[in-house]
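Pasting two entries for a bug report.
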Amino acid sequence: MFSLKTLKMLAVTAAVAVATLAQPATAQERKSIWTEIQERGTLRVGVAEAPPLLMRDPKTGEWSGYFLDVASGFATVLGVKVEPVETTWGNMVAGLQAGKWDLASGLNRTPLRAMAVNYSLPIWSYEIGLLYDKRNPKITPDMKSIADVDRPEITIAVMQAAAGDIAITPHIKNAKILRLEDTNAGRLAVMSKRADFYAEDSDIQRMTIAQYPDWAAQILPEPAIARQGQSYAVRKDVPLDEMQVLDIYLEEQIAIGGVQRAYDAAVTAAQAPAQ
C-alpha cells in the first residue's frame, strides 16, 4: 500500500506532467500579433494630428507624415496594407488597449506610459529647441546650453503653459520670459526682435527653418531639455520577443536613412501651400 506521503508526491508529479503537456498546446493555440494582422490583411495604425509626425489633409481626409510612412513600409514587409485610424492624442493609448488599432504612433516614451504599453525602438527624438534669428548680434556661436542663454539681456518667448514653458522656466534665473498665446506669436516675436529666442518642440522649429532659411536657426541645448524618444507602441499583452519583428525593421530603417528621408519629405509636405 502507498503511504499518504507517497500519494501526495504522486499527485504533485501528475499535476506537473499535465501542466508540462499543456504548455506546448497553449503556445501553439496563441497567434502572434503579426499573424493576426497578416490574416486580416491590414495593419491598423492610430493617428492624430501633429505635423510633421502625422498630418491630415483637410480637403481629402487622407493621412500622411513620417510616422505613417515608416509604418506603411513595415506593412509592406508583412504583406498587408496600412490602415490609418483617426483618434486624438488623449485616446491614443486607450484605443490601443481596447484593440481599435494595432500600433499607436508618435508616442513619447515615458516610464509611466511604459507600464501600460510595450514600446518599439524610438525612431525620432522629441526635445525643446530655441529658435532664433541668425542676424541677431546678441546670439553668439558659443551659446550651446540653457545656462549660456540665461542672461539678463536675453528674452525667451514661450507659448504660455505649453511644453516649452514648462520645460524652460525652471532653468531660467536671469533671462526674461515672454509668455505668448501660440506658436505664430512666438515666431513673430523672434522676427520682430521682441524676443531673442522662442522655446518650442524642435520639430516645429525645423518647419520654421525650412520656411524661412534666410534668417531662422535653432539651438538644441546640451544638456538637452525634455528629450524623449518617440516610437510606436503595441498592447501590453504582446510579448517583447514579438516586438523584435518591428524593432528589427525600425533598426534597419534608421541605419539606412529611411526614417530621415521620411522625416524630410514630411517637413517639405507640411510647408507646401494648400491647393
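Entry 2 (this is the one that rendered wrong in the viewer):
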Amino acid sequence: MLAFFIFNCITFLPCCVDIPNQKLSIMSYQHFIAALVVAFLLFIGTITAQKAKENPILPTFEQLVANDAPQAYQLAINNKLNFEQLEFFILYELEKKRNFDYIDTLYTTYWEQLTHEDKLKFKHIHFLAEYAHLIQGEYEPYQFSTSFAYVVQHQTEYKKAWGDSLYNRFILDYLGVDCIKINLHPYAPKLKPIDNRKQKAETFLSMIKANLPDYEPHVRAYVYCYCVYNRNVEKQAYYDALNNYLTKYETEPEQLIIYADELIEADIELKYKKMGLNWIDKALKLDNDIAFIICKAELLYQLGKISKARKTLSTAQPQIDEEEEWIKTRYQKVEKLINSAK
C-alpha cells in the first residue's frame, strides 16, 4: 500500500514542475512536498490505528505478576522472561508472602538461562546467593547451592573477574550460615549434648575444608562461636570462642562495640568483661568514634580502672557538645559513675 502511494506521487511529480515557468514550478513543487508530508502522516496514523486495534496494549509485566501470577509463572517456565523480570517476580512473591512454591523453579530458570559469561557477572551470582537459602532447606550433611558450588568450582576465574577483595567478601558472606541450616540449635529448649553439637559442626567444616581450605579457620571460629556453644551452659568455652572470632576475624567496628556493650550490661565475672577491651581497641583502630571511646571508659570503670577510665573519657570531652543527644546522655552517665568512684 505504501509503495503504491509513493509510486503514484512520483508519477505525478513531473506534471507539477513546469520548467519554462520557473516561479510557478517552485510554488507547485512546494505545495506538492507539503501535500506529500501530510498524506504520509495520515498513512502512518492509519496503519498505527489498525495495529493498535489488532494488538491491544498488554499490561506491563509488573501488573501481570500482581494480577495473574500463574500466567507470569507459565511465561517463566517457557523461558519467556529476562533476568530483570525473573528478579522482579521472585522479589514480588517474597515481599507479598505468596506462591512460595514458585521460588525453586524461578531460581532454577534464572540459573539455566545464564551463560558462562553471565555467571561471571557479580550481579547475577549475588542475587542468586541472596535467595539461595530459600530453596536449600535443611540438609544433613549441609550442601552448597547450585550457584555457589559453581563459583567454588571456577574460583580461579571468579577471582580474576571480581578481584580478590570482592571474591573473599562474597565467599565469607555466604559461609556465614544460619546455625539452623547446619542443623545446630545452640539455644533450643532441649539442648543437644555438646559432643553432638561438635560432631555436627565438624561434619559441616569437613566439607568447607575439602572445597575451600583457606576459609576453614575463619568459618571454624564463626561456627563454634555462634552455633556450637551455649552462652549460659558452656560460658567459658563460649566467651573464649567469641573472643577468638572477634579479635581475629570481625572487621565491622559496630559489631565489635555491640558485643562490648553486651559485656557491660551483662552480670558476669570480670574475667569475661576484660575481653571486651580487646574488641573496643580493635574497633577504635578501625573507626575512632566518640561513642566507642565512651564505651571503653565505661568498661574500664567496671573493671575498677578508674584513672584510665577518667583519662579515656576526657579525650571525648572536647567534641561532646556537637554530638547527638543519646551520646551526650551516655557521656554524662559515665562521667557521673567515674566521678562517684572512690
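Dev reply: Rendering is fixed now. As a check, the viewer should reflect this: Residues 239 and 272 are 7 Å apart (CA to CA).
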